[in-house]
Every structure is written in C-alpha cells, then in structure tokens.
Amino acid sequence: MEGPRLSVVSADCDDNPSSDICPGARPTVCVETLTVHGGVGVQRGDVNNFIVNQYLVTDSLSASSVSQLTDSAVHVNTQTAKIVTDHLPGKKEDLERLQRRWCVLITALLCVSCLTLFIVSLFSFGLVNVHPLANPPPVTDQSDPRSSIPDNSTDDYKDLLGAPRVFRRRNWLAQPPYHPLAPNTLPIKMVIVCHTATDECQTTSDCVLSVRYIQMFHMESFHWDDIGYSFLIGGDGIVYEGRGWDMMGAHTKGHNLGTLGVAFIGTFVNKMPNDLQVEAFHKLLDVGVRIGKVATDYTLVAQCQLQVTASPGFVLARNLTSWPHYDASKPILCTKI
Questions:
Q1: H or E stretch at 211
Q2: Cβ partners under 8 Å of residue 117, min gap 6
Q3: Contact 245, 188 (CB under 8 A)
Q4: First-last CA distance in the chain
Q5: Binning pLDDT at 50, 70 and 90, where does residue 96 land?
Q6: Do the Cβ atoms of 269 and 204 come closer than 8 Å?
Q7: What backbone torsions phi and psi does residue 104 show, to the nearest 5 degrees?
Q8: Cis peptide bond N-terminal to 187, omega within 30
Q9: Contact criterion met (CB below 8 Å) for 211 and 172
Q10: Cis link prior to 312 (omega < 30° from 0)?
C-alpha cells in the first residue's frame, strides 16, 4: 500500500550531491506537480529554474526518517524563481488600466459631442441671421397700412397683345415697404437701364429668390423703404414688379423722380443679357407707352451715363446705343468693376 507523500523543492542534486535532501538510498519518484503546504498547487511553467522531486515514503522508513524529511526546509533559489501563492496582481493592474482607458474614451466622446453641438448651433444661427434666403420675407399683406402700393398698381397685361409676362409683388411674395412711398411723376420721361450686380437666374424659382434677396438687401443693408428698382427682368424672360410705374424709385441718386429704373438680373460687365431678357424689356416699355405710363418721346439711358458706376455693365451700356430712344448726349462712364 502506498505511503504518505511529501513534496519538496531543491537545487540540482548533480551539482550538490551532498545535500541532505537529495535522494540517496531512499526510493524516489519524480513528478510534474509541486504540492505546497497550504493547499496551493503550482503547475509546471508557473515557476522556472528549479527541480521538483517527490519522495515516496515507504513503510520501511522509520517515523524519525519521515519526521526528518518533514522537517527539511524547502529551499528555493530566490534569484531564479518566485512562487506567488496569494493572487496575481498583474490582472488587477490590467483591469484598472482598462477602466482608466474607458473613462478617458467616454470623456473624449462627450467633449466631441458637445463641441459638435456647439458648432452646429453657431452654424444654424448664422444661417438664420446672415443668409438672406434662409429666412425669406413674409408674404405681402395688401391690407397692411404700411403698403402704399395698391394691388392694381400694375395693370394685368394678359389681354394686351405682345405684352410680357409680369409677376406682381404678391407673385414673388414681396414684403411691404417700411414707410409709405412717394408717388412718381407720370408719364415717365426717362428710362434708366441698370443691372443688379448679382448672379444671373435662369428659372422662375431662382429669379423669385433673387428678387426677394435684392429687396431684403436694399431694405436691411441700405435701409431703404423698399426695393429700389421699378422693375426687374430675370433670365426666364419674366418681368418682376418692384416699385412699379406709380411710385418713385431709389435706383439712381438725383434721378429718381419722373424716371423708371429697370434692372436686368445679373452682372453684365463682360456679356449681354440673354435674348429673353432683352425681348421682355422692349415689350415692357411698349406696354408702358400703350397704357399711358411712359411718354411716347421718352429717352433711354444707361445708369453709368448719370453717375459713375459699373451698372448696367460696360457691354450692355455699349449695346444700348443701338436701341430705340437712346440718349447719346451723355457719355458712358461705366467702370469695369
């Protein structure tokens, strides 16, 4: 029957044969497991550079021999191996390190989220208060007492042969003037050709937005009571009513009373308006003469003939010299910018 087992750790017996714990005449069995008193098992690979010898105590050994073996100290070279019997502190440190990394990551995500929300808020505020088309003007309320332009200020031309298509103020959703406008002197004696110095528009939706932008710019930046032009002509060939025939414009300083300011939407320093715009311009003046708003002997001038400005653009101003009713008595002073 197998006797009690006692596990010890020793240095190499080949190097130290005189050690009192080296196996001699006693029967020995070498095993792969070191059993440490206290119930903690240390598997091979957990510690290095020592030899595990397990002694089999047979019945022939005396009690004193067993006691001697039991009392023998377990010698472990502390420079070559260390047995940890309580716990593994590395795992706790790794866990704490992982927790710190997660805290840093969550904090960074929260900071990025707050920064993004702040930027989006600033950008949204800028769109609402800076971009002219983000907050379009309200629809004109013709019952508003501030509006001095009556609903019939521009005649309906659909029954007039050869009349252009005209968008009334209510069609492009104009906002009412800040104050009542001064009446114009009729019939019109002079037609002043201008350009808006903005981007061109080719579709009705784009032209409507352009006219609303121009009105807002004139009223909020220049602090005028309304859009300055009498009429505007878009690249879609539609005439957009500004102040109309009956109200004095604010397009050419010193030359607003008794004149008509017609602006081509776009910038025509180096090019001409398209054919639809030019055709609509001539139709508008023809209708103005027919309904008595424009004198039959009116004169046609470029805005830069009355003041130093780039409007209506050098190319367009030069082309006006071949149009009917052009007044060649005044020199063209158009700047190139």
A1: helix 204-220
A2: none
A3: yes
A4: 116
A5: confident
A6: no
A7: -65, -40
A8: yes
A9: yes
A10: yes
Cα diameter, the chain: 147
Residues in the chain: 337
Here the tokens at position 228 are 């300055």
Domains, in order of start, for the chain: 1-109 (no CATH), 166-322 (3.40.80.10)
Residue 292 near residue 266 (C-beta atoms within 8 A): no
Q: 3-class secondary structure for 25-70?
A: CCCEECCCCEEECCCEEECCCCCCCCEEEEEECCCCCCHHHHHHHH
Mind giving me the DSSP string for 124-144? Answer: HHHHHHT-TTTSPPPPP-TT-
Tell whether the torsion through CA atoms of 303, 308, 311 and 314 is positive or negative: positive
Instruction: Quote the CA–CA distance of 31 and 28 in Å, as a whole number.
Output: 10
- CA–CA dist 228, 281 (Å, integer): 18
> Mind listing the pLDDT tens digit for each residue in 153-165?
444 676 788 899 9
Band of pLDDT at residue 98, cut at 50, 70 and 90: confident
Written as one letter, the residue type at 90 is: G
